[in-house]
Write a sequence for this structure.
């Protein structure tokens, strides 16, 4: 009997772990939109920091991120245990914030010229090159700003993760949310550390003095990395913005009654188009999510702008 009970217990544990693994994968996919933006934002946060201080700054922000998770994960699990009806409204708020932030990025691209961005960059570079600039205070401000940004993005990741497992047992919820929180933090800041040191790696390869073919290859690779690094940052930003609309719009649609039946009807209608119907049918849900995300972002940004004008507050730079 003892052996049978042990086997049954092991089987139950294996089944729970399998369920947790599946739910974690689903939660990871749902939070991918925030991850892209998290990467781009945190990589940008260390811009202007001296090369020898980039990794210490990233590590300081990573420690702040872990502290954020220690606050957010228990808080999210307490909401799930005691006021589970609050999960959907929080998801809607998180989805709306994603759409707003994504549209704010679009507005910046279309409303600001390259000349303005270049002037701002030159102004920051000039201030940093000034011997009178307090670099300790500058780093501290960067770190504090990055940790505040991380808190908002971490809250979105955790709420979205919790939303995917809200019907699961509490133990599974705790396991999934904790795994997502930990792996996202390690993954994001590990990648950020790699991204910010790409240019240093490229420069180190270029300085190779070897006269053989291996040395020539390293120098070519170094030049390639230096050319690639800025495009990587731009790509992360674009992909992150697009994913914000897709994920945010999808969350908002999920909270609207009968919305999925309308999307399904649209898919069936598009599928009937000769030759290209199958392809368009696959793209319809994604395009619908993106469309809802863009419209919601535009509405929220308009409301925020009008609210600030009515209160007499200065308009923030888009």
């Amino acid at each position: 009997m003892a052996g049978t009970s042990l086997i049954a217990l092991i089987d139950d544990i294996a089944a729970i772990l399998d369920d947790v693994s599946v739910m974690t994968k689903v939660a990871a996919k749902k939070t991918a939109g925030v991850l892209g933006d998290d990467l781009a934002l945190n990589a940008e946060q260390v811009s202007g920091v001296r090369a020898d201080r980039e990794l210490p700054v990233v590590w300081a922000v990573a420690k702040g991120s872990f502290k954020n998770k220690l606050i957010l994960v228990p808080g999210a699990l307490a909401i799930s245990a005691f006021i589970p009806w609050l999960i959907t409204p929080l998801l809607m708020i998180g989805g709306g914030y994603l759409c707003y932030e994504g549209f704010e990025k679009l507005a910046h691209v279309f409303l600001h010229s390259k000349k303005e961005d270049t002037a701002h960059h030159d102004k920051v570079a000039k201030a940093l090159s000034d011997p009178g600039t307090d670099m300790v205070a500058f780093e501290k401000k960067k770190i504090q700003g990055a940790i505040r940004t991380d808190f908002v993005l971490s809250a979105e990741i955790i709420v979205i993760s919790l939303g995917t497992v809200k019907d699961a047992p509490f133990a599974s919820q705790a396991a999934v949310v904790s795994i997502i929180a930990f792996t996202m933090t390690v993954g994001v800041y590990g990648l950020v550390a790699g991204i910010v040191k790409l240019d240093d790696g490229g420069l180190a390869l270029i300085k190779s003095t070897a006269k053989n073919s291996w040395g020539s290859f390293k120098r070519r690779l170094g030049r390639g990395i230096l050319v690639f690094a800025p495009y990587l940052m731009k790509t992360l930003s674009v992909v992150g913005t697009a994913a914000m609309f897709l994920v945010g719009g999808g969350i908002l649609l999920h909270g609207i009654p009968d919305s999925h039946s309308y999307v399904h009807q649209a898919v069936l209608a598009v599928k009937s188009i000769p030759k290209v119907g199958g392809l368009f049918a696959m793209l319809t849900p994604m395009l619908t999510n993106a469309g809802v995300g863009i419209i919601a972002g535009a509405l929220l940004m308009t409301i925020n702008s009008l609210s600030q004008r009515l209160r007499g507050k200065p308009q923030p730079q888009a």
